[in-house]
Amino acid sequence: MGDGLYNFFKVLxxxxxxxxxxxxxxxxxxxxxxxxxxxxxxxxxxxDEQRRTQLFLIDQIPTWFAVAGYVTIxxxxxxxxxxxxxxxxxxxxxxxxxxAPALAFCNAYGCxxxxxSLASTYGTLAxxxxxxxxxxxxxxxxxxxxxxxxxxxxxxxxSDLSQDFKTGYLTxxxxxxxxxxxxxxxxxxCMISPCVFWFFLRPxxxxxxxxxxxxxxxxxxxxxxxxxx
Length: 229
Known about the structure:
77% of the residues lie in helices and 3% in strands. The protein is mostly helical. Strands 1-2 form a two-stranded antiparallel ribbon. The radius of gyration is 23 Å and the shape is globular.
């Protein structure tokens, strides 16, 4: 816990310091020249950077679409997750989704500065907060672990998307096209992952002839991954 809090406050302090200096620099750049003070020096932006910024902002995602998507996902999670984990009440998830955008922004901005995602640290904080809120007598351990998974998914997705959009900015890719690709990949994962889990959950037949244990399939997959990896 001590190491996680140290890393959390370290990256948070660097993020806040970078935001402060960036806002201070923008204020200095936007100042008007007066008699007692020389004109502020403005940095010249190259043509490539101007072109990247222009193309990236033209095809940006509408704000209403992002907000509507987040509210929809929050509503679905608030409704369905308590049925999977009864100890994690619906108001716990609602509070998580209210504070999650601030945590996601801090993690994405800090990951851009340090190339280091603190999603696990934010998840650890959720374990302590939600677990203490629920209490040991009401399944606080399971509620904290489930809340950790929810927070880590939100925060890590934000940092991953920011890195993907950074790559798209450098390669002159369309943000909308990248968002559609992310949605397609997420939908495929929602269908493929349960099928893989169901396949390894019970003994399966290979080519309809031999029934093998799940452990043997896992060992075979692991050995194949080591050989080709």
